[in-house]
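Q: Give me a backbone?
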Amino acid sequence: MNCSVYSWKRWVINNLIDEAREQYIKGSRPRFITSKETKGSSVITAEFVQPDLAHEWIHAFLGSLGAFDDVNSIRVSAKHSTGPAVGIKINDTVAKDISFVPTEGAPHIVKWNGIWIEVGRSAGTPDWRTGAENGAKITIMMHHAHHDALGELVAAAREYWAWSSSTNITIHLADSTSWTKVVKKSRRSLDSVILPAGVKEMLLEDTREFVRSAQWYKDAGVPYRRGYLLYGVPGAGKSSTIHALASELTLPIYSVSLAARGLTDFGLQSLISDTPTDSILVLEDIDCAFPLPRRGGGNDDEDEEEDENPAPPWQPSRREGRTSEVTMSGLLNAIDGVWSEEGRILFATTNHIESLDPALIRPGRLDVKVHYTASKREQSARMFTRFFPAGDYPCAAKQSPEDEVPAQRELLFMDVQRLSELAEEFAAGLLEDAFSTAALQGYLLLWKKDPLGAVAGVAGLVQQYEEEARTREEERLKAKAARAKFREEQAERTRTNVSFVVQPPPFPGGYAPYPDQFYPPAITSPEDAIVPAELLAGI
């Protein structure tokens, strides 16, 4: 096509080209761009690669624009929780809890904000264990000349992803080298986590203050990071607290196990570097990675407390044979070293804070420490009222959770006041600092439709706890006695059976270079290895 412009002004030609380009963009669906045309000034090309979080943003956003509606190659997975937030629009009533993800194929064109966008997708490798896809890539070509349009697209994709994730949170799990699994979980209300009064409010306010204080940290010259250590008895709600806080803050969770097989210092740093800012990094059961002998006076009782379920003396300790290669120095550098990442909230959990190195839990690395104990009576009462809101409940309690419920039974409406009274009665029947939150939750689940039965069964629950406590104490004393006997037998063998290394041949002519030095007799038979007591006294 030839075009003649009758003017001496160069700007006339430029304006004509700009107007023609705008009309082209606003007009009908354009043709696909060839590889040569991608080098032109009117096309912007961008790539989004897993596991970067921007890939999730653009995938969900383009799916909402219908970019994958006409694809013919689809990968179907029943593991919906590991799939992307938005893939292909399919009626949920027809295929509920199933993930439909477009695979590699021909590019597609979609229009956004008056700009035509050509979308191409390279499929990654599906993980047969989890259904997650690794290494997928989305390539877009924008029919536009300014980079600001790409920035606006990414910002819109991020905003849409945050909005679409308002009903769930994303949890990323790692192996030794990369974030390989993505799990979608429903958001959890902080009110559902039963902690002592003021604890969760303090954590929520502290994390919110950190998120909105990025500029303050920069102006003050303080590294922009915040660490929390949640420690205490198992089942007290440490992981549930992290889940609820992530839901309140609308932040993704990145969880890594320091005991993962093959994990190295470099691998740990790479994993942390791949996490985005404004995210929560979780190191669960951190004491399992660097077990230290628990500090004590060395007596038998303290030695026994070192392990509630000790291995037999002849078996290697469970602290041996670590599969991870992460060192304490590597972990400390990853948390707050010169090359450590900033802008993330770090949560570490442990059941035994006394097993951790003091250098790891000092302020600046783990700034806030929260102790989780067994449930107080006040917590138990609040958990009861949460399980049993005002409503209709049976007038009479069942004898046990396994009893069959009659087809016709009389119901009685219980208001908040009546249920509060039952909650106080329930809490009064429990032992203080005896039951974990998880244990009480498991018990109440057995009676979830029978508050009177839950209160009536408290006595049996306490009796069962006391019997199990006696059994554990008897087993502990037996294990202690077995270890003491084993140590005595070892000491006795050491006193009566001392083995010497076989003596070299005598010097020629019986000459000894050091006459005053003791030379044991040559060992020629097993009986010679037993040294008399008087000879030992002269050594």
Observations:
- The longest strand covers residues 115-122.
- Residues 294-319 have pLDDT under 50 and may be disordered.
